[in-house]
Amino acid sequence: MKMISIEQELKNNTYPGRGIIVGRSADGTKAVTAYFIMGRSANSRNRIFVEEGEGIRTQAFDPSKMEDPSLIIYAPVRVLGNKTIVTNGDQTDTIYEGMDKQLTFEQCLRSREFEPDAPNYTPRISAIMHVEGGKYSYAMSILKSNHGDPSSCNRFTYAYNDCPAGEGHFISTYLHDGDPLPSFEGEPKLLAVPDDMDSFAQLLWDSLNDDNKVSLFVRYIDIRSGEYRSKIFNKNQ
User: Fold this and answer.
1) What pLDDT is recorded for position 134?
2) Domain range 6-218, its CATH number among 3.60.20.20, 3.90.1170.20, 3.60.21.10, 2.60.120.620
């Protein structure tokens, strides 16, 4: 698979929607993830990321302007022991609760499907990172309608074991802007992952369309110790 430039991938796409990056730093010592949200409506844009425990939650920037909290208020990141869960919806909780009961990542998502937001039927994208004893693996999932047909849900899971240093994968909800919005197609895209969290986070934030970007979360986890550093960008301050 050809490696993309994530900078160009984002700069050339005004609306990928929500996106997840998971990978390993170039020096091999950090498990890396990033999650961003974008919005076209005033309701979607009226959000910020806030820390909650070891994870984050979306929150209304101006509660008085919140029209409908469904589908936009959720916990994108939660931590269960040595597992970090990253998703674009409340399936974070479904995965957390299921894996706490020894279900697999894929089994947890069997009870979920794309979002009920016709005519877009926004895909649910999810990732699970497993860091333990110096070992690191991750998996990514997309649940989407069958070419816009809400009667059928297509489920794809991609697992990456012993991921090489400096490599990661990117998945988003949409291919690009449109009406209705076209769902992401194909397997997650291969990209380079650098060592410097601050510069990588800044590059991602600067590459997102300025009109549509809302928030960005980036985390680097030490694969040996499990300690992590995180960074949050919110357009609304």
Assistant:
1) 94
2) 3.60.20.20
